Amino acid sequence: MNKKKKVLIVGNTVSDYALAKKLKTFDCDIFIAPGNSLIEDFAECVDIREDSVQQLLEFALENAVDLTVATSEIAIKNDIATLFQNNGQLIFAPSAQSAAIALSRSAAKRFLYKLKIPTPRFAIFDKSQLAVDYLKNADMPQVIRTDENSNSADRLVCTTFSSAKTFVEDLFSKDEKKVVLEDYVYGHEFTFYAVTDGYSALPLTTVANYKFMEDGNGGILTSGTGAYTPDYKVSKDIENFVMCNVVQKALQALENKGTPYLGILGVECVLQSDGQVMTLAFKPFLSDHDANAVLNLIDENLFTLFEACAIGSFADDYENIDVSNNSSVSCVISSRLEGKVIKGLELVESDILNFGIKKNKYMEYETIKGKNLVLTRTAKTLSRARKHLYEDIEVIEFDGKKYRSDICEQVENF
Predict the structure, then answer these.
(1) 81 exposed, middle or buried (CB, 10 Å; 0-12, 13-18, 19+)?
(2) What number of other Cβ atoms are within 10 A of residue 237's Cβ?
(3) Distance from C-alpha of 237 to C-alpha of 293, rounded to nearest angstrom
(4) CA angle 37, 39, 41 (to 5 degrees)
(5) DSSP classification of residue 3
(6) How would you classify residue 192: left for phi > 0, otherwise alpha for psi between -120 and 50, otherwise beta?
(7) How far apart are CA 106 and CA 281, in angstroms?
């Protein structure tokens, strides 16, 4: 009998929990660092911080871990990949140098500009007054972001000089070292995901993104409020364009620098009304709001897939990645209030992932302020997945509940 494979996941986000649940279906023993009590039903939590990469290496060695998957931006930035590789440990994660384009918005923008990949007009500043002077003549709306390209980073779409000036000054007053300004581009936002060993790459899927808090793309710009996949608005021709002209171009440039990128690479894009594609940013793994939606459609054994990338047999072992014909829709449920009891979770049939909600002394789940849950429903068609998803959302009750009601709204028979 083959012994169970041991997998260490380094990360503490919704996407890590989705990955752990998926890997568990392939009969793997899962360790997750740092993890918390909400994942203990299917994984063993390891009390090691994401930035303690030497301790994580020691744990992997002591416990004969077969494969480490690092999705944590903190761990990647601390170059966990290079440390593990230098010590003979298989790891599915990019090195800190190769992942710079996915962790730093300014690095991504310079990289895109150098490779002549179409991206919105941008400017990078390390002083408040220079940024304000630029804004005086800039086209509005402007997207203003911190340089750190993460789920928690501050971001805002400003429609007036006054609001843009206030936000920029506020960011620098918080001791931000660098701020990126970018022309807002109208169109359909999507993320194209690919799996790569640093030398060859295969497409995974394309996801339609919802980033704004309010229906109709109003309100605050977030890291994600919902998604659906496959994205029926993105044709195969457009997917091939992104694969050839963005993913492969980027991977070739990184390989030429001696910093090949190993892992899942996400490319955030906007499809404009004239059919042109603008590349906004790169992602170092699946985003929290779409992780379950993507993973639910993958028919491959993820352990085998990630291991092939880590050992260098990916190009020989895979001609494509099997993805089911099903469809998935996800929605983020937020709360305006903290400490409110969440009712109805036991009645929900959709997949549920949470952003850190906790149980009170009566063993009832209570809200945190901000994002609380991601619900994902998978079905034969997008329309059916959407219908059942929103039925489940209605079952969940708590004071201050907030979610977008228009995710995948226009889909009919897809």
Answers:
(1) buried
(2) 8
(3) 23
(4) 95
(5) P
(6) beta
(7) 10
Residue 58 tokens read as 């020691």
User: How far is residue 14 from each of residues 62, 261, 375, measured CA to CA in Å?
Assistant: 27, 23, 11
| Other Cβ atoms within 10 Å of 348 Cβ, number | 17
Q: What gap in Å lies between CA 127 and CA 352, rounded to an integer?
A: 42
| Residues composing the chain | 414
Helices (H), 78-217: 80-86, 100-103, 105-114, 128-135, 161-173
Question: Residue 110 to residues 100, 101, 115, 338: CA-CA distances in angstroms?
Answer: 11, 9, 9, 40
Q: pTM of this prediction? A: 0.94
Domains annotated on the chain, with CATH: 5-92 (3.40.50.20), 121-183 (3.30.1490.20), 186-317 (3.30.470.20), 327-402 (3.90.600.10)
Q: Give per-residue pLDDT as tens, 327-349.
A: 999 999 999 999 999 999 999 99
Sign, CA dihedral 376-377-380-384, equals negative
Per-residue pLDDT tens over the stretch 79-103: 999 999 999 999 999 999 999 999 9
